[in-house]
Each structure stands twice: as C-alpha cells, then as structure tokens.
Amino acid sequence: MNGEKKHRKSSKKKWIVTAGIIAIMSGIWLALRSGLKPSRITYPCQRAALSNIDVFKMMVVSLFPGIANTIVSKKSKTLLVMGGLLVTSMFVSTNMVQNDYFYPSQIDYSTLPIQLDEHIATLENPSNLYYVRNASGQNGSMDLAVTTLFSMLESNGESFYNSSESSGLISATDVIVFKVNAQWDRRGGTNNDLLRSLIQAILNHPDGFTGEIVICDNGQGYGHFDYGRSNAYNDSNNVLRVVESFHPAKVSAYLWDDLRTEEVAEFSTGDTDDGYVVSDSFDTETQLYVSYPKFTTVFGTNVSFKKGTYNGTHYDSDKLKVINTNVLKSHRRYGVTACVKNYMGLPMGMIVNPISSIIPHEHFSIALGGMGALMAEVRAPILNILDMIWICPHPLEESSRCGPDVMYTSAKFADIIAASTDPVALDYWSAKNVLCQAAEYLEYEKYSSMDPDYEPISPSYPGNHPMDESFHNYLNRSNEVLIEHGYSFTMDPDRMNVFITNLENSTTPIPTEHPTDFSMILVGSSIIGGLLVIAVLVYLRKK
Strand 412-420 vs strand 335-337: parallel, antiparallel, or unpaired? Predict the structure, then answer.
C-alpha cells in the first residue's frame, strides 16, 4: 500500500516537473517569437504556448491543499497563505495583461489630426474620390456617413441607386456581393458598423429592394465570420451578427475558404456544386492561374463571380454587382493593403505549389500585378469603399506593429470613409494623404513603404518579414494590367478629383491610455517568469 502511495506521489511529481519544463520552454519560445511582433501572439502556436503555461498554473494551484495538510506550525501556515495569495495574484496579473492586450476594456477615440484638402483634376478623364470625415455616429453608427457618401456621388453624376428617378449603380433587383476582409479579427478586418450601414442603405433602395445581398471573402484558410472580437463599436458585432440583424431580408454570408479544395465547372455545364472554377491557362506575366468562386446562396441564387447569376438556362452578368470593402492599413510584405490587394480574398489559392507552405502562390503574384488581372479577367467591383475609421499607420521600417494583423491597441482612430469607382486612385490618394500623414504625426521618420510614389523596397524592422515588392510597384503593375483591359484607372493625382465632407457627428467613447504592445509582452513574460520561480519553490517545499 505504501509503495503504491509513493508511486502515485512520484508520478504526480514527474507530471508537475514535466509541465513546469514545458511551461518554461513555452514562455521562452513565446517571448522570443512574439517579443518583436506582439500581434503574433494571436497565431495558433503562440496560443498553444499560452495554454501550456495555463495548464501549469492550475497544477501549481492544486499543490497548496496538500501542503497545508502537512503543516502544523501556525507561522508556516501563514507563510503558505501569503505565498498562495502572491501566486494567485500573479495568475490574475498575467491574465489581465493578456486580456488588456487582446480585449482592452476602453478604446482611445482620440481622432488623428489629419489634414485633408479637396483637389480638382487638371487632366482629362479624371477619377472621382469621395471622403467623409467624422464618420462615426452614436454607438458607432455609420448611417449618416454612408448617406452623405452616396449623396456626394449623386451630386457628381454618379448615383448609387439605379431607380425610376436616376441612372446609377445598384438596381432594386440586383444581387450584391460585398467583398470584405474577413482574414483578420479586431482592427484587421472590415468595420462591421460600416458594413451594416451599407447594407441598410441598399435595403432602403427608392424602388424597394427585392434583390439579395451576400457578404463574402476567402481568407485563404484563415477567414472567419464569427470572430469574438471584431472591428466594430461593439466588438462582438461580427459578420454573422450583422446578417442576423437583417432577418428576414435576403442578407447572407458565404465564406469562400470552405471552397478552396473544390475545383468545379460552371453551372452551364450541368455542374451545380459549389467550388472554384480554375482557368486552364497560366498567365506567365503575373504568374497566376485565374480562378473564381461559383456558389449557391442560402436563398437558392446561383452565383458565378465571373459570369453573373444563373437561372438554369442563362447567365445575367449585369445583375451581379460587387462592392469592394476593405480597411486601410500597413502591410509587412507589400507596404500597404487597401482596395486592390483586397482581391487576394478572391482566388482559390494553392493551385500550384507555392514557395511557402502557408502562403498561396497568388499572394506572390500581387507583386506582378496579379490583383489587377483578377479584377480585369474575372469581375471588377462596381464601387470601392475604403474603411479608414480605424487605420494601422505603423510602417514596416520602424514598427513591430505594422499590419496586416492589427490589435485594438495598435489601431489609430482616423474616422474616415471613402468611395470611388477607381480602386487604384483610391488606394493611391488614401495611402499618400492618410497613412503617410498619420505616420508623420506619430513621429515615424521612415515610412516610404507606405508612399505610393516610392519605388524601392524598404528595409524591414527587426522581426518583420522582408518586403516582397514595394507598394508603388505592385499598385502600378495592377493598374497597367487593368489599363490593358480597357479600364481608365490612374495613379496620377492630376487625374483625380477629391471631394471631402466633414460631418458634425458624435460618438460616446471613453478615451484611455494603453501601455505599448511591446511593453505588455515584456511585462507578461516577466510575470510568467516570476510565477515559474515561485512554483518551483513551492514544489521544493512540498518535497
């Protein structure tokens, strides 16, 4: 019997020692891998490391009752209680650090003092860009900002509604695909308050909307519509909740990630399965097999992203309208991501063996104009809406907080939305006048990676991935492809009309100051280290 007890005690000690070693190694690995790029703590491996530490914490707590039973001295019991409180407080502190980093209880709504000026084109065939400032209303509502944005379009002969009263973009019977960014949670994805207001505006069509709205994206295996922490005033307001709020209207969501392994043929061939249609020819210029999704919505509508809606006998291309909606932010591989690069959420991915095991080859084709090829050869958006409510202006040259993944504590409140039928011009002007100006305000000295006029590849901050191509070059190459296919987009500011409206809007935020992300990681790592030392002392005392 005694031998059996000793065996159980010995086994328990071995398990605790093993868990402690794993926790120590996990803590070291976490600090090394996430210290220079705190947002990496959201990656699966980093989250697994945190779980290892949490398991050990619980095992340490389980030691105290056993130790208490073996102690007779009142003084020793007092010391044990104090030690227990100290260890428990460290558990709480560690969790508070994690929670404040991931889920800050208060958000800093201090608006960036960005100066935006209207601009009139001096060359023929200009592109019109529309900007609304102070976009956020009560509780994050974008209703007034969206209404204002569409009024600006109409004032310049580009009506949003195609109705009995005016010729415009969206008809009452259209099927609308919102191409959003659902690859990242928190501030890395499209703002869902903006998305909700855009959908409401369509449902408010003057002729009475009888069509359908589908929210879509391919996050290349990382996309989600059910994030617990989203880019919204109420951070639980994810895409699925936006969809549910419009029930019973024909509003749905379709995550194309689920189709990445399904290669199919078009509806007209008799193939009714959802999946990706892949081109037989390889574009040597952009290193791309053009591909696009084909699917049936929950309301039974057959949608081919390239050919349009299908009724069983023929396609209606004009009935399908794409609204391209992305957030403006820096990007560690390509400098900036906005409207053009948002089309990375369109292709199938992994059609050919990629250079990286986790990054599809289409992502490398961005450098060669691949996104322009997808727009030109599949379907270009009828309207591009750029979300600049929360932006990530941290340049890859000087910051570990550059995008595309953006924590709540890294995002800056610009409170701007913009629209244009020209995605290239919208990307150019917004990066030049919003991102670069914000970086300058934040006292960054090097931010050429976000400058659409800067051609060289910028050197990366330690811990950031080297650039695959400069923002200027990838945007220009996409534009060249689009021009070859007959589009009249531009990177020339002399061919841009810029219209700006400043709203007298109001939010109800509580500004607060947060420690820097890097400091939080260091604090968290220090607490974990101290916790492990105390745990070892407790274990030795029990022994």
Answer: unpaired
SS3 362: helix
Q: How far is 410 from 527, CA to CA, in rounded Å?
A: 22
Residues 6+ apart with CB under 8 A from 127: 420, 421, 422, 425, 488, 489, 490, 495, 496, 497
Helix (H, G, I), strand (E, B) or coil at 316: strand
In the chain, % helix, strand, coil (3-state, to 5) comes to: 40, 15, 40
Least confident window among 6-10, 103-107, 221-225: 6-10
Tokens for 376, please give them: 């030109």
**To the nearest 10°, the Cα dihedral for 433, 435, 441, 447?**
-110
Q: H or E element: which one contains 138?
A: none
- Residue 291's nearest CA partner among 313, 309, 266, 312 is 266
Please, which pLDDT band fits residue 337 given cuts at 50, 70 and 90? Answer: very high
Distance separating alpha carbons of residues 322 and 319, to the nearest angstrom: 10
For 479-536, what is each residue's pLDDT tens digit? 999 999 999 999 999 999 999 999 987 665 544 343 444 444 444 555 555 555 555 5
**370 and 348 in contact (C-beta within 8 Å)?**
no
350: left (phi over 0), alpha (psi -120 to 50) or beta: left
